[in-house]
Amino acid sequence: MIHGVPLPDGHLRVHRAPGHTVMEFHGEIDIASALTILPILDAATTPQETLLVIDLTPTTFFDCSGLALLCRARTRLEERDGDLLLVCPHPFILRMLRILHLTTRLRPAPTVEDALRGRLRDAG
Predict the structure, then answer these.
(1) CA–CA separation, 2 and 7 (whole Å)
(2) pTM (2 decimals)?
(3) What share of the chain is helix, strand, coil (3-state, %, to 5)?
(4) Are 77 and 84 in contact (CB under 8 A)?
(5) What CATH class has 12-112?
(6) What is the DSSP letter of 56?
(7) Strands (E), 19-120
């Protein structure tokens, strides 16, 4: 549960770490799962949250519905002076991001540690 919103079964795990929240997308992220993830994502991009890490490592399928979730989260966080870090080791998803010119906006990293390290490097 994040800010009172129950987590959907199977497609999402959320945990807090010092200074950030990590949302792991699991399994197939399509229109059906995106609809269940959306309210939790919106709760995780409230004004209190300044750093959200979305980890696609456990994802087995990802379509335009998943891309819409990422873009929505990024926009909501930017409006609140927050930041989104994306973890994505999947060549197919990375290729989609490159084709759509989203790699500069979403800045995917291969691991959570690399994403956090890159943010510290950019801030310093």
Answers:
(1) 8
(2) 0.89
(3) 45, 25, 30
(4) yes
(5) alpha beta
(6) -
(7) 20-25, 27-29, 51-55, 59-62, 83-87
Tokens 């010119």 appear where?
101
* Residue 82 contacts residue 45 (beta carbons within 8 Å): yes
Q: Where exactly are the structural domains of the chain?
A: 12-112
Residue 68 and residue 100 in contact, taking contact as beta carbons nearer than 8 Å? no
Residues 49-70 have pLDDT tens digits of: 789 999 999 999 999 999 999 9
The tokens for 8 are 């959907």
Tokens 């999402």 label which residue?
A: 12
- Extended strands (E) in 7-101: 12-17, 20-25, 27-29, 51-55, 59-62, 83-87
SS3 at position 2: strand
pLDDT averaged per 10 residues, the chain (length 124): 53 88 94 94 85 96 97 94 96 97 95 89 60
Partners of 23 in the β-ladder: 14, 54
